[in-house]
Amino acid sequence: MKPSNIVQFPRHGLIATTPIDPSEIVLNTRQGSKQAKRIAWRKMMLHWPLGLAWLLVGMLWPLLKWVGAMDVLFQCLRALYFSNTPALHATLQAEVHSGCYILISLFVYLYRPKVF
Known about the structure:
Elements: H1 22-59, H2 61-81, H3 90-110
């Protein structure tokens, strides 16, 4: 194995031209940390229901996939049967069911929750 190269950073960085009072630094970091905690808490509360929904749908996905496929098949056959009836919107209903099935599939397969 080859030893890794360690990059040495410069010891002398940029020097501030105006002196900074240490009490201002402490005050700014306290306010920043409170604000960061508040933002993190809000993000967690926003992501939590979506992650919970993903967990429940993902656990029931084998059953939901089968039921959804049967529903889409039934709606397509119904749309073909009522294709010459202008009063029924079976084609639109079949498209809506197919679109919802695709969206739920994409949600399960592509989304990864940030809270778990």
